[in-house]
Fold:
Amino acid sequence: MGSEFVALSLPPILIGCLAAVACALPGNFLLLRRQALIGDAISHVVLPGIVVAFLLTGMVSTWPMMLGAAGAALVAVALIQIVQRVGRIEPGAAMGVVFTTMFAGGVLLLEQSDTSNVHLDVQHALYGNLESLIWLDATGWHSLLDPEALAWLPPELTRMAVVAALVALFIAALWRPLAISTFDEGFARTIGIPVTLLGLALVVVSAMAAVAAFDAVGSIIVIAMFICPPAAARLMTDRLATQVWISAGLALVSAVLGYVLAGYGPLWLGADDAVSAAGMIATVSGLILGGAALFGPKRRGQSG
Amino acid sequence: MTQAAAMMSPLPSEQASAAVPLPLKVRGMTVSYGATPAVFSADMDIAPGAMTAIIGPNGAGKSTLLKATLGIIPRLSGQVEVFGQPLDRVRARIAYVPQRASVDWDFPTRALDVVEMGLYRQLGLLGRLTRQHRSLARDCLDRVGMADFAGRQIGQLSGGQQQRVFLARALAQGADLYMLDEPFAGVDAATEKAIIDVLKSLKDEGRTILAVHHDLSTVPDYFDNVFIINRSPVAAGPVATAFTETALQSAYGGRLATGLLDQLFPSAGPAPMPQPFPTLDA
Amino acid sequence: MMDLGYNTLLVATGAGLLGIAAGVTGAFLYLRKRSLVSDAISHATLPGVALAFIFMVALGGEGRNLVGLLGGAALSSLAGLAVVQWLTRRTRLGEDAAIGAVLSVFFGFGIVLLTVIQTLGAGRQAGLETFLLGSTAGMLRADAIVIAVGGALTLLACLLLRRPMTMVSFDAEYAATQGLVPARVDMGMMALALAVTTIGLKIVGLILIVALLILPAVAARFWTERAEVVALLAGVMGGLAGASGAVLSALAPDLPTGPIIVLVAAALFTLSLVFAPERGVLAGAIAYMRFRRQVHMRQGLLALAHGHRVHESYSRRLLGRAGLIRADGVVTDQGRRLAAWAARDERRWSYLRSRPEGAALAARYDGLTPIEDLVTPDQLRALDDAIASDGAGPQARGRVPEGRS
Structure:
């Protein structure tokens, strides 16, 4: 059991946890800025980003694709701003215009290009393949101390860990200006906080988290983790720092519980095969949010 | 030189201002939303150590003028000098109290946290919030009579209480120039008194106060100077000379109740009617 | 290919009708600022499709009956919509957060169910995944008929609800005085969005169907300020995108229907964004440049008239280019003349704005429009006479507040 767990379940669980936390952290600020759907938009435009990167480089390798996806996220955010400001269109609709168009373009490019021999398809982009990220060289818990085995950890795990650390660092280092400019933008400008730049940086960091997580777990978890844990946490506390900590905790719970339910739930019910871990993680996070909406001590706002 | 121009330069001595720079000096500022100017070609000089009110009818560009001065909204043209320097060099010397409506009241933060935001320039990105800082923030809350509400979520406070918290945040900044956007809008009488007392004590400490104000009846009591605007400046200077019936007529046109005018200017009889001209319907 | 021609015609007709319905419905959603709610609706269809399949298989059927699948889709998207409304009303969360939560969680749950179906038996679920991106390839005759009829019915419902939706989206309170219940009309609007989404699933797919509700509506908004015309134009553009997209994708291999329809709509949107008169980007840029030039010119002239320095370098350049100041900054005769004119205009305005009887006109003061543009020559003469006879200046009438001097 131990060796099987370490080889087959530990890496995907860790990756799921890191991805969930990396998305939930910036998600708190997106939520408070009423930009929750930016996560939705970003995760849709990741597809055209990686397709273009593939067409340019001709290979399925991680870094060009991550760059392509991050580039697409930036292009999308810029386009949303342009459509919104220049066309005087309300933010929701502007977002809808941009991400559907880019996603459609991505699908079309994918169908038109010769990608049949490479592992690149829409389904994978949507719900990833968390279960396949296994650590074959692990023979048990002791492998965690074995440098030779550690060298063969799934690369997604290392990558996700680095990105999650960067995201956490960003939030911690810029905590004060982020909090002030989210609460009161005008005041933030008068004390010299570069509000626009900071907002852009938040989107870039979110995109980075989304792209890294997407690579490992698909975009549907990304959207769920951007929104559900922070929203649930918001309904439980009236303090920003507490909210962010709770959201990280809920993200972890969703990832672990979701993975376990997907992997072992069907066995308990007498079925043979596991179900989608990514889908189950999103489902669990939704159930948690539902619970918070019913029982959270701070679920009512000023108006309601 | 035209009359209007004469009225518009209440503090004309450019030489004097070169010696001791004014807290705030604005030249040729135009701001627009879309294709009509909200503020057109405004010059404004704010005298040091005094309380100045920006007044004018609704939609006259009062708040716009303040926000564009602070760089919160972009301007089409114009220059701003604060204590003789460009704005970015002297941000630490300015405190701004926004209109209450501009803030997200549902934000998860307590009154004390809001006041501590005023310490941002002292603390920087990573500076630790020490006990001294915290007690400074509490003192500021105390000064506006809100010490007992330090732990409340900001949205749970009444409008007047929220306004007091904002003033406390400005106090924590320890600025020399205070700019307030409608500080008395929608607040109760007790809060209005608390705020004006704090502002007067700031003035006594030699600080400069500039507030967008909409209640004409309190102007002579609260303020030393006025700046009257209706898209472009109408009059400016000490209340005694600039806060005249003519200037108000000029700024508010027909929108000023005669009752209010009589209350403000009771000494004179009815104004002599000038030669009539055809009523123009636009 | 077996009878591609007739099927394509049916599908294109269905897509066209659906496009019109989507455009019209989307226009009202957009005017009510609720465009993205349809994104939640469409993603929430997935668990319904999967459950309907499982249910039909459990009953011993094959599970691919389109009407059954779409029925399931409609039910679960209704549930999604209800959750969005519940979260928005009952908690402090904003509608954006509610939409994002519903779309991701319902979609995630749908994925779980798809993997469950996968375990029911090999190859069984083939076909369900086409609901993600839409597909018309190899569509059954019966399915094509379902889509054409569904599109027609939705369009009909849309036309019937058009007037109440116009009234509510323009002014909900007034509509209420006319006996309409805005909440009910909103519900009708959402029901239409739900119908469009459900019927569009097979053709456009659940990820992109929201585009058909947003793009034509937003594109149409650029061309007109009237709600009814927005709806009409949106319908035309939506129909165009739907029909031509379906035909285009049938003509060439590897052209997936959904994305093509969306890209045609996106092209219409882009054209509108750039070229629409007044609201378009091009027109806006030209107007802004002209406005900026006017402001700087006027400010420059007034500064000249008052003998001030011209602060802005752009103003100086403009004055120089117009031959009003020389390179060394000296004012030319022409400059002096125009400056005097501007100053006189400003004086007239300032007098007018100080008089109660000028209030109607004074409201049109913007610092730029010369007063000569707004009044007739005889009115102007009367104004000048009034200024002259009031020669002592308004100051003479000034009263000073008591207790201060």
